[in-house]
Description:
By secondary structure, this protein is an alpha/beta fold. It has helices at 29-34, 41-53, 68-85, 100-107, 121-129, 139-144, 150-160, 176-185, 194-200, 204-220, and strands at 2-6, 24-26, 58-62, 88-94, 113-118, 134-137, 167-170, 189-192.
Amino acid sequence: MKIYLDSAQVSTWKLPAGCPAIQGVTTNPSLVFQAGLPVNLPTYLQLIQAAADHGMPELMLQLPSNDATLALHWLEKLRTAADTAKLVLTIKLPCHPDWLPTISAVQAQNQAILLTGLSNPVQLLWASSLQAAYVAPYVGRLAADGRDVWPLMQACVSQQNSSQGPKLLAASIKSPEVLTRLIACGAAAVTLPPASLIAWSSDALTEAAMEQFELDTSKSLQFKA
């Protein structure tokens, strides 16, 4: 499973020991805003350079406007910067028919896309018909809405395993238990905030076992050889 950091806060991209290898970074307009940055082209270009400086192989950037002409202007600049930085670029767009002109325009440039916010099986089939590279359901939001998320996750994995189906990149993961189930069901990728990765890189049960080993080792030295 590939892991992407879900953050536009560059200072959080360096992770401590114990965290798994990171494939890249994903952002969206909300994350850029939360990082205290303007959602504009210069910011996105800065994020590309920052990802390269951190040795990230990939970057996923969400375009903020469904104006196809503006999207293509941004895409040209972003691809040039990504190529220079030797980054694999994926463009994120909402999984919604209002965005179809932009989706089509971006794909016409042979650009891989991720359709984000996918929430039901009809949207999944639509994304598959468009040959999106990835789909990104918000698992936590779906669960908070009272939905059973796991049939949809299994359907995403089924499409992922078909010849031209999009890969599942699961977002909005609220617990290590949910991450465990996503690993078990075969999700291709997940996106996580740096804070979650850091928090889950250790565990109270592991810490307790280490303390017990140390205590027992110390006590054992009282034994006669």
